[in-house]
Design a protein that fits this description.
This protein is of the alpha+beta class. The chain contains 17 helices and 14 strands. The strands form 5 sheets. Strands 8, 9, 10, 11, 13 and 14 form a 6-stranded mixed sheet that branches. Strands 1-2 form a two-stranded antiparallel ribbon. It has a two-stranded parallel sheet with strand order 3-4. Helix 2 (65-78) runs antiparallel to helix 13, helix 9 packs antiparallel against helix 17 and helix 16 runs antiparallel to helix 17.
Length: 437
């Protein structure tokens, strides 16, 4: 009987302790100070340790969810209390427009991308957190900083670089009797006509932006002779007409007038272009490392490689390219600590490997060795590593988006024979003058 009473008393005492603990836990962590570091309450897990409250980070990327999945999964494995509200918008125009709308309506995600096309608008609008003094930023190369910085301050983490060129199908080239790659622009045009004469569609280009071909042509024919041309342009010492008229004339006469490119390609999507190349229905398409997984997924047996765009003179071949875009943290985020944790994870060897695996990006940070796909080796070796890459929006130091849109309208009008190259470059000079007033 005494034993039974003793057991009952012990049980009552234990229940009291448990109920007391539950009551204490219920009244703890109910306040919210509103500061980023105190947004999330914690609960006590079965081991007595504080378990972080689940947080959902919103992110708007221009790599799709499949491409981002490895790094998102890796991050969540390390921080299981953090999940993602993932949104995707394709680059460049759609992404810039969607993000701008979200920023202006105060609905922007916790994490978003800064690119050459929106760098000034985001930084000048005070939309992104200053990351300059974050310890993890030390891995970023100096060559990547211009893409995501202004006045010596850095607002995003850029972990990659890229070079784009023309993927070409080796089998189709062989069928057309092409044994050597062109060394000059004229040879490139003649090679394209040779493909056409053999009944092979030479080239697809959706002409949706300042294209890979346009950028590389400018590098090959202008920057190869005057690397400081864009600096002179924005200092008032040169004009678009002086730099771009010959390039656009070569493009029109070589590709549009010869029927190698046609206006109906303007309506194509990126997916259509890559599918047609992977299915071996077209000999060449513009692209970069991000396209390789898709091509090989559709056709594992395809034999292809990338080539640059040659200039008027031999030895001036260039690629389109730039430092990679960077992930930024919304200055108004309610989850600052978690957003910074994600950027920090991106700087680790594990995170970089996962990002490389999913996106096909070429990692360019201190202490990381990257291996490129054999088909991409020429662009990596002769373009990216030799600095023979060009993207106008990186070099243009102001009004990038307005000038990009004007350029887009202008060369599409050239393709449809609405205006001449001279009229196109005059419109660019007028747009720069208008934006500066």
């Amino acid at each position: 009987m005494k034993k039974t009473s003793s057991l009952l008393l012990t049980t009552v005492l234990c229940l009291s302790v448990v109920l007391g603990a539950c009551s204490s836990n219920t009244n703890t962590n109910t306040s919210n100070t509103g500061t980023p570091g105190n947004q999330n309450t914690s609960s006590t897990n079965t081991t007595g340790e504080e378990a972080p409250t689940p947080v959902k980070l919103s992110i708007l990327a221009w790599n799709n969810e499949k491409e981002m999945k490895p790094v998102l999964d890796g991050f969540q494995a390390k921080y299981p209390h953090i999940s993602f509200d993932f949104q995707f918008a394709p680059p460049v125009t759609d992404y810039i427009a969607k993000l701008q709308t979200m920023l202006l309506s105060d609905t922007a995600p916790d994490l978003f991308i800064i690119a050459a096309e929106n760098r000034n608008e985001i930084i000048d609008g005070d939309f992104a957190l200053d990351l300059t003094d974050e310890p993890f930023m030390s891995v970023m190369l100096d060559s990547n900083k211009p893409m995501v910085s202004k006045d010596g301050r850095i607002y995003a983490f850029s972990q990659a670089g890229w070079a784009g060129g023309l993927f070409y199908n080796k089998k189709l080239f062989e069928q057309a009797g092409i044994t050597e790659l062109p060394q000059t622009w004229d040879e490139f045009v003649q090679m394209s006509l040779q493909l056409k004469d053999a009944g092979i569609l030479p080239l697809y280009d959706r002409m949706h932006d300042i294209t890979i071909i346009h950028s590389a042509m400018f590098g090959a024919n202008v920057l190869s002779k005057d690397p400081a041309f864009d600096e002179k342009l924005f200092n008032g010492e040169a004009t678009f007409s002086e730099g771009w008229t010959e390039v656009l004339t070569m493009w029109k006469e070589g590709l549009i007038d010869n029927g190698i490119l046609s206006p109906d390609m303007i309506g194509l999507t990126s997916e259509q272009v890559m599918n047609e190349f992977a299915l071996e229905n077209v000999a060449m398409v513009p692209g970069g490392p991000w396209n390789i997984p898709t091509i090989e997924e559709i056709n594992p047996d395809i034999e292809f490689e990338i080539m640059g765009i040659p200039g008027k003179e031999p030895g001036n071949t260039y690629y389109n390219g730039a430092p990679g875009v960077g992930f930024a943290v919304n200055k108004k985020t309610q989850h600052k600590e978690e957003a910074l944790l994600f950027l920090e994870y991106l700087t680790t060897t594990e995170g970089l490997k996962e990002f490389e695996e999913g996106t096909g990006g070429i990692i360019t940070v201190h202490g990381y060795n990257t291996e490129v796909h054999p088909a991409y080796e020429p662009a990596y070796r002769d373009g990216l590593m030799e600095g023979r890459i060009y993207l106008p929006m990186v070099s243009w130091n102001r009004h990038q988006e307005a000038l990009r849109l004007q350029f887009l309208v202008s060369f599409q009008d050239i393709a449809t024979n609405k205006i001449t190259p001279e009229e196109a470059t005059a419109s660019l000079d007028n747009k720069l003058k208008e934006m500066d007033e």
